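Our consortium's second objective concerns turning raw sequence data into structural hypotheses that experimental partners can test. To show how far this objective has progressed, the report includes one record in full. It was chosen at random from the queue rather than selected for favorable results. The single chain below, 410 residues long, was entered without modification.
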Amino acid sequence: MTIEVRVPQLPESVADATLVTWHKKPGDTVSRDENLVDLETDKVVLEVPAPTAGVLAEIKLKDGTTVTSGQLLALIEESAAVPGAGTGAGTGASAPAITAAAAATPGADTGVKLSPAAKRVAEENKLDPKALAGAGRGGRVSKSDVVNFLAGKETSFAAPPAPPAPPAPPPAPGRRGGRVDQRVPMTRLRARIAERMVQAQATQALLTSFNEVDLHAVNELRSRYKDSFEKQHGIKLGFMSFFTKACVEALRKFPAVNASVEGNDIVYHEYFDVGVAVSTDRGLIVPVLRDADQLTFADIEKSIGNFAARARAGSITMEEMTGGTFTITNGGVFGSLLSTPIVNAPQSAILGMHKIQERPVAVDGQVVIRPMMYIALTYDHRIIDGREAVQFLVTVKQCLEDPARMVLGV
């Protein structure tokens, strides 16, 4: 029996998608629910799983094609030799070939049953299958099991940068080497990022204010409670929960920083949905911590770790990246000492964190070495005055230099 593979129903706000990569070619054996092709939208990559086991008979559309919901992508010849498949005659691989493929099921040599998608994510993150526990039937490990396992190991919301590639050797004497241009089309995500950044700068009156924070008190608090915190909550106590809580306290005091412009109106949001910028190999995405004021430190650390793991796995949904009222971004994980972040429109402000660097500072008339960080607030000057922006940063600074303020609400 021939089974059609079609583009799944796209989210309501997405008109079309780009076919990025086929993971199979005609004649390949496929398993039920195995990812066949990636579809890239403006914000996320969607996987198209095989609806049945069998042989990929025909691919209808090539890489780079723009597709819409319901469009035909490929045909699969369902084979009776494949467990769970129908009784169609199928013209694909023979039974011995399919049996061999089944014998090579991911995780079979380790005694762990992994779904194809789970195996791919595990391999990308160099995980030992034996360390994974599956919630499926018979202990089968799904993609979500691997993502949740990664989330439990995360301590920051962005991965450190890969080491730089070694420089290319100089051209041989007398030869004109290396002068080649390579033209590569932007991915949809990169094009969307470019569009939003230009739009923000063209429509908002952006200005950036700076301050610096002494993180000595935060470091002491983390050192004192890190072991008991991890033992109780199963996640490490990082810096992001402190910064998120400090920003919420500042947003309470200065509601204009949590507002947005709609036409000739200013919309003051009476809730705190804080976006956290996450770096992926495809570009920057900003999943949102909903009602951040109601989250505990452990809730924040777990959510951010989960976002980071799922961002690398490409499983963050569009709903999780919409509706934020304020954003935090951390260039410090890449070594940035100072920067001017761009507002994530239609929001009106963004806080930039930077590298923690030990520097000599004056404390009570004495010069001491302290872990210092520059922080930056880029804001829309149309609705946020310079006084509010500076006082916002001062509030964040005070909360971090005296964390008890966040507990007492002062």
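The partners drew two points from this record. The mean pLDDT is 81. The chain is about 30% helix and 25% strand. Both points have been shared with the crystallography group to help prioritize constructs.
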